[in-house]
Amino acid sequence: MLLLAMLALLCVLPIVNVVAMSVASLQDIVSGKFILWPKHLDFKAYSYIFNTGVFFSSLKNTVWITAVGTFVNLAVTTLLAYVCSRQRFSGRRMILFMVLFTMLFSGGMIPTYLVVKATGLMNSLWALVVPSAVSAFNMLVMREFFESIHESIIESATIDGCNDLGVFFRIVLPLSVPSLATFTLFYAVGNWNQYFAAILYLNDSSLWPLQILLRQVVLIGQSDIYSHLDSGEVIPLPVSTQMATVVLASAPIVVLYPFLQRYFVQGLTLGAVKG
């Protein structure tokens, strides 16, 4: 128990340090004397970020990517999984083969880039949604869950006059709320942290998500990205502003995760075979 407490403390300390540096005064940061919490609190970094338009523009882009991307992910995953879970669907084996093939052999970065460019999705937020519309692994897990639903329930709904869509929306989805919540969490976290695809497909700074803005702030800290974008000036960026950006980019996931943790744990055994 003591070992677990020490490991938990080691995980928490870097987070506390980042938060502390985001509210530390320049004097405390330069002196480097504070360990866990600064002596003089200074919220100018947060005030500076909130008074610039770039942060809220990036936040809006990230929220859009997360909301739309998660909806598309869930829609495609559940519909495809349901189709593949029905034994009487003649093309299910071919679809499953194609899904498994993508897990073993990826299309590659350059071919994917060329497809995105050819379809006119470059410099569009849809470029971060469409290419990753479905996860093959998540689809297979969801399919296993759908197959675990007793066939008699579906047969009863069919006898009562439900077609396939009626069975899916009225019977299968209500029974799948825990699994849907799990995959919503997985997809939402992945979409919120969109980084590499944004670097590849977004050249317009007005379309940057938070993670790209965070990269610019942290890795190019010697130039003030906010002033550079808003007024063309280049001013040294304080460390506290960099850390404040880290806090604001991570805060939504950190705040929501404890409330969704039970779904995350449930997702570890979702689709498992019962002994």
Automatic annotation (TrEMBL):
<feature type="domain" description="ABC transmembrane type-1">
    <location>
        <begin position="59"/>
        <end position="260"/>
    </location>
</feature>
<feature type="transmembrane region" description="Helical">
    <location>
        <begin position="95"/>
        <end position="114"/>
    </location>
</feature>
<dbReference type="Pfam" id="PF00528">
    <property type="entry name" value="BPD_transp_1"/>
</dbReference>
<keyword id="KW-0812">Transmembrane</keyword>
<dbReference type="InterPro" id="IPR000515">
    <property type="entry name" value="MetI-like"/>
</dbReference>
<keyword id="KW-1133">Transmembrane helix</keyword>
<dbReference type="GO" id="GO:0055085">
    <property type="term" value="P:transmembrane transport"/>
</dbReference>
<feature type="transmembrane region" description="Helical">
    <location>
        <begin position="126"/>
        <end position="146"/>
    </location>
</feature>
<keyword id="KW-0472">Membrane</keyword>
<feature type="transmembrane region" description="Helical">
    <location>
        <begin position="167"/>
        <end position="189"/>
    </location>
</feature>
<keyword id="KW-0813">Transport</keyword>
<feature type="transmembrane region" description="Helical">
    <location>
        <begin position="63"/>
        <end position="83"/>
    </location>
</feature>
<dbReference type="InterPro" id="IPR035906">
    <property type="entry name" value="MetI-like_sf"/>
</dbReference>
<protein>
    <submittedName>
        <fullName>Carbohydrate ABC transporter permease</fullName>
    </submittedName>
</protein>
<keyword id="KW-1003">Cell membrane</keyword>
<dbReference type="GO" id="GO:0005886">
    <property type="term" value="C:plasma membrane"/>
</dbReference>
<feature type="transmembrane region" description="Helical">
    <location>
        <begin position="235"/>
        <end position="260"/>
    </location>
</feature>
<comment type="similarity">
    <text>Belongs to the binding-protein-dependent transport system permease family.</text>
</comment>
